[in-house]
Amino acid sequence: MPSFGFDNTYARELPGFYAAVQPASAPAPRLLFLNEPLALELGLDPAALREADGADLFAGNVLPDDAQPIAQAYAGHQFGGFSPQLGDGRALLLGEVIDRTGQRRDIAFKGSGRTPFSRGGDGKAAIGPMLREVLIGEAMHALGIPTTRALAVAATGDMVYREIPLPGAVLTRVAASHLRVGTFQFFASRGQLDQLRRLADYTIARHDPELAGASQRELGLLRAVARRQASLIAQWMNVGFIHGVMNTDNMALSGETIDYGPCAFMEAYDPGAVFSSIDHGGRYAYANQPLIARWNLARFAETLLPLMAPADDEAAIQQAVGAVMEVIDAFPSMHAVALLRGQRLKLGLFAATPTDDTVDAALAEDWLGLLHAQAIDFTLAWRLLADAAVGDGAKLQALFADTAPLQAWLARWRERCARDEAAGGPRPTERASRMRQASPWIIPRNHRVEEALNAAMHEGDLVPFERLLAAVRRPFDDDPSLAPFAEPAPPEVTAGFRTFCGT
């Protein structure tokens, strides 16, 4: 097996932070998916990966010569309860590559068998959840949202046993890193300050090298992670994405979306929307995501405090606490700025001044209130608003049973657009074009995702998956052939829809 050019800095620089593990063997590997554009980004040869031994590679039977598979240790708050040891129970980091742009990226397996962190699980994964990672990750990438991505999925020929036996698969995932809030929690909860300091230095070198050697580098790291999360969650909110399981072990310090388990895109707008079958109390509901991100950041801040002040210096501790609380308390405003930035693009407003912030925020809030009051499809409403920018509001109005509130809002919006145009903003045609680049037509509609996964998992038919994947990779294209993928699910399907974590 040829070299991937792995560097393995995590394994080399952080001994004791992981367990060395070999993937389980697969009896009948078969390549189901290969992300050829991503392979090229990584400097890999897609043609070579598609050869006969590519299935063996991506199922874990053979590894690149320079791979060093390890299961990373981490802890985490799961639905608010702290678990001091989680770790990669069914994942293995193979190594790191430097991509064609000079960025370091992890390549890891998911579903490759038991590790010391499996906690009684089988460490395996089924085809359906692994193909879900492909669909949602590629959709997010096409939407311009930072995300981990799937390089490949290989069927193993094994069955995995959940409620029913399911065909097994291994996902190969690419990430800026797999460093999480939970990685820091693992060592902080054990009082292992030397390891915690080494982890902080490694994280800074990996994601924020400008902080290396700074006198307050841990505080700087917290600020950087907060900025990335504020931007990421705002992007989620502006496309109606619900992660579903925002545990601290699922918050990547890189600012990428990670772990597409019980996730979903909202259809009818509802701030309280929950799709995850395990989120009984709505902790991770759509509208709660900014609040949970702040809560997770507070947990991250707690792990950094021992590095910022000696345990026996009360004054230094209080100063450090005050400094991190400034960051945590500033997060809502950071997120609000990022959210409004995206909403302005979706509203078609481009010449805003600081004095417009209140007006524009109210416009956005009232627009969402209209959608909520009449259970309007979030994605279609935003998309059709672009048509209204050029005077064609018929399709938008058709979404509403009562159009009077919409007409009143549209009058306010058009007045704001006129002021924007007078201040140098684009003319209506260009405004509409720009709005369509901010509001997708195609998202991974939940019923389409389930249709594709069920066909692949239970019938061995990948055609629905491949068609849906092709569609979600073109979220902004006005192509009539994509129209079936833009249609909302029937209300009876949406009302009872639930997602599952796939474990």
Task: Tell me the fraction of residues in β-strands, as a range.
Answer: 5-15%
Query: Using DSSP, what is the number of strands?
Result: 12
Q: Summarize the main sheet.
A: 6 strands, antiparallel
Domains (count): 3
Our Rg estimate from Cα atoms comes to 23 Å
Oligomeric description of these chains: single chain
Tertiary shape: globular
List keywords for this structure.
503 residues, two-stranded antiparallel sheet, six-stranded antiparallel beta sheet, alpha+beta, 3 domains, 46% helix
Explain the overall architecture.
The protein is an alpha+beta fold. It folds into three domains: 9-180, no CATH class; 182-263 and 284-318, no CATH class; 349-436, no CATH class. Helices cover 46% and strands 12% of the residues. Helix 10 packs across helix 11. It is globular, with a radius of gyration of 23 Å.
Summarize the structure.
The chain has 503 residues and is α+β, with helices and mostly antiparallel strands. It folds into three domains: 9-180, no CATH class; 182-263 and 284-318, no CATH class; 349-436, no CATH class. The chain has helices at 9-13, 36-41, 46-49, 52-59, 127-142, 181-188, 193-207, 217-239, 289-308, 314-347, 357-373, 378-388, 394-398, 404-422, 428-436, 446-459, 463-472, 483-486, 491-495, and strands at residues 18-20, 30-34, 70-72, 76-78, 81-83, 91-98, 104-110, 125-126, 149-161, 165-175, 241-242, 264-265.
